[in-house]
Amino acid sequence: MVRAWQGMAVLACVFSGTPGTVSAAAAATETDALGRIVELRIGAQSLATALIEFSQQSGVQVMASAGLVRGLQTQGVQGQMSVAAALDALLQGTRLNVHPAGPNTVSLRRPEAVNTPTAAANTEEMLEFIVVTATKTEASVTETSQSLSVVTREEMELRGVQDLNGALSYSSGIKFRDYPGGQGMQDFYLRGFRSNNTAGSVFRDGLRQQFNGLDGDLETYGLERIELLKGPSSVLYGQGAPGGLVNAITKRPTKTTLRELVVQGGSHDRLQGAADFSGPIDADAEWRYRMTALGRESDTQFDYVEDNRIYAAPALTWAPSERTELTLLTQYLKTEGSGGEQSFPVVGTVRPNPNGQIPANRFLGDPSWNLFEVEGEAAAYEFKHRFTDSLRFNQVLRYSESDTRLKAVSPTASGNLTNNRLQSRLGVDRVADSKQLTTDANLAWSLHGDAIENTVLVGIDYAWHRRNNVQRNGTIAAIDVFAPVYDMPIVWAPTLAINQTSSLDQTGIYLQDQVKWQGLSITGGLRRDEVRTENLVRNLNVRQVVEDDKITGRVGAIYETALGLAPYASYSTSFQPLPGTSFGGRPFEPTEGKQIEVGVKYQIDPGSLLTLAVYELTQTNVSTPDPAHAGFFVQQGEVRSRGVELEGRTKVTEALNLIAAYAYTDAETTKANPAANGISTVGLKQLGIPEHNISLWADYTFALGADHTLDLGAGARYLTDTYNTDNSVRVDGYTLVDLAGHYTWRGYALSVNVSNLLDKEYFTPGFYNGTVFYGYGRTVLATLRYRW
Known about the structure:
Elements: E1 37-42, E2 45-46, H1 47-58, E3 61-63, H2 66-69, E4 73-74, E5 77-82, H3 83-90, E6 97-100, E7 105-109, H4 117-122, E8 130-131, E9 139-140, E10 148-152, H5 153-158, H6 164-167, E11 174-176, E12 187-190, E13 193-196, E14 202-204, E15 207-208, E16 223-230, H7 234-237, E17 244-250, E18 258-266, E19 270-280, E20 287-297, E21 308-321, E22 324-337, E23 344-345, E24 371-386, E25 391-411, E26 417-418, E27 422-448, E28 452-480, E29 491-492, E30 498-517, E31 520-537, E32 542-559, E33 565-576, E34 591-603, E35 609-625, E36 633-651, E37 656-671, E38 692-703, E39 708-719, E40 722-723, E41 730-731, E42 734-745, E43 748-755, E44 763-765, E45 771-774, E46 779-787
Parallel strand pairs: 3-7, 14-17
Antiparallel strand pairs: 1-5, 2-4, 6-7, 8-9, 10-16, 11-12, 12-13, 14-15, 16-17, 18-19, 18-46, 19-20, 20-21, 21-22, 22-24, 23-45, 24-25, 25-27, 26-27, 27-28, 28-29, 28-30, 30-31, 31-32, 32-33, 33-34, 34-35, 35-36, 36-37, 37-38, 38-39, 39-42, 40-41, 42-43, 43-46, 44-45
C-alpha cells in the first residue's frame, strides 16, 4: 500500500500532447531519477492499487487524490524498464498527467488543469494516505469518516524515536504515562480514556498484540509505520477501550535490495546496534526476504535500573503471481529491565518535604532483588489473493508465546511517608507465561458502476489467550528515600498471593459497506462478538466463567469538495469487558462506548493534510459504589469526554516540513454513587488527562551539494495540569523542547537527537492516589547509519 510520507519519490512531467508538453519518457533527460532502471511486476487492476504496488516496488512516491483515480483501470506493467517508461505504461488511457512535486516526487493531475496556471493551482492534488486500520480496506484518509494519525518510518528516524511513546508524542489526542525506569507495558490515554494492552488497545498488523500488557512490548525499529485510530473501534476489532487503538505495521520484505547498519550511543551509557537487510532471492522477485535485528545494553536515569534488549525478526514473502502473496513474519524479543516500580510519594516531589526534594535518580527498590525479564516469540502469516479485480481475500494469523520473570521490591500503594522519610515496601516474586492465537480473515467485493463504487467487506476474527501467573509476596524494611540502605532481607509469606490461570476466547463476525459516489463516501458496519473469559484462582479455590456477547456498529459520511475540504460526521460504538461481580456474585456486564464526531479534513497541497475533529464520547456501565451494600459495586456510573483535536502535517516548501497538533480534552465523571464516606466522584477530572495538549515540530533540509544534505529539526510539547484519581493532587503542566540534526553523505547518515533539551523536571500522576512518576530528563542520542 502507499506509505504515508515515504521518503523516496521521483520527478516526472506527463502531458497530453499539447504544445509545450512532454511525456514521462521524453522528460527522462531532465532528471537521473526518471532514467533509473527498475524491476516491476504489476498486473491488470484498478489504477489506485497499481500505484500502491508501483510505490512499493520502485521506491517512487506517487501523489494523487482518491477522487482522481477512482474507477480507473490499468493494464499494468511487467519487466525491467526506466521509471519514466513505467509511468507511461501505467497511465496509458487514463488521460492523467504527471507533474513535479518536489525532489524525487510526482503528483497526478487532470489534463484540463495543465494549460491554465490558475486552474492548475486550484486543482493541485495532495498525497493520499492509503491506510488499512480505519476500514480494513485500501481507503484514503479523505475517504475515512474517523480521525486517524499516521507516523512513518522516516519521521521516526528523523525524531530519533525509540519507543511508542516517542513515536506518537507529536500526535493529537494521545498522552503517554512516562515511565523512565522501563516502560513495561504500553500505557497511554486516548481521548480521555486509559488505553493499554490489558484493554486491548495495541495492535500489530491488524491483530491484537496481547491481552496482558506486560507480555506484549513493541520494538519500533521493526516497524514501517504506526497508525493511530481515534474513537470507538469495536466494529472491526472487537473489545477495546473507547478512546481508540494503535496499530503498528511490521517491516515487510522488499522487491528492491535494502541494506542498513546502525550504531547508536548516548545518555545513560547506551550502546545499541541494529541491522536491516531485505531484497529479492530470485531474479523474478517471486521470493523475497527481510531480516531485522537489534541489540542494546543501557542504563536509565534511575540507579540500578537497566534497559537491555535483543530483537530479531526474519520475514519471507512468496508471490507466485501478481494476484497471490504470502508473507511470513517471525519475531524474537527479549527485554531485561528493573523489577522495582518507580512510584514516588507526592511529598518530596510535587509537594514540599522538610527534608528536601527526592533525587530524580533515586531507586526505591532493592538491587539484590531486581529483575523484570520478558522473553517472547511470535510467528505470523499474511495471505492475500485477488480472485478478480473486484474480489479480494485477506487473512492474517499470529501465534505468540512469552515468559515473564519479575523480582521486585516496590513501594506500597499509598505513597505515604513515615516521618517524611520512610517509604514502606513490598517484595514480589512472580513467574508467568502466556500463549496467544489471533487471526482475522475477510473478503472484499468491489462493484464499479458508472458513477457509484460499492465495496462490501465481510470478515471473521478469532482470539485465544491463556496465561498462568504465580506470585508470592514478602515483607521488607521501609526505605529512607533520602538516605537509602540496600540489600535488605525479604521475609516471604508461607502461602502464594496469586496462583491463577486466566483464559479468553473471542469470536467476532463483521460486515461493512463503503459506498462512494463522486466525492461522497458513506461507510456503515455492524459486528457481533462472543467473548468467554475464565479465571481459575487455585490458591482460593475459585473458578469464575463469564460469557458476554455484544453488537457494535459504526456509520459515517465524508465528502471531498473541489476546494480540497472534506467535511465528515460519524457515530461509532465499542465495548470492553469489566472484571468483577456485584453483590450476590453476578458478573459485571461490559462497559459501552458511544461517540459522535464531526470534523473536516483539508487538502492544502501535495503532501499536506490538516484535520479538525470535534467529538463527544461517553462510556456507560461504569462501576460505582453500591449504595445498598457497602464494599460492593453496581454499574450505574458514566464517564464523558468532550474534545477538539487539530492536527496538521504539511510541506511548506520543498525544504521545510511542519507537524502541529492541539487537543482540548474535557473528561470527567458524569454519573456515580457516593462512596462510604459520602463523597461522590461526579464532576472530577479523569486521572492524568491534561485539558490542553499542544505540540509543534519543524524541520528544514539544507542541500549542501549533489550528494550530501543537512536536516535540522526542533519541536516543543506543552501539556497543562493533570490530576490524580480523586483530584486531591494536582500535577503541574510542563513544556519540553526537542532537537534533531541529521547529516547525510552518500550512503552515510549521522544523527544527533536531544529530547527534553532544557532538562525540565516534570511529573505525571502515578498508578496510586498518593504517587507520581518522574518524567524523562534530558536524553542525547547519536546515531550512525550506513545504507548501500
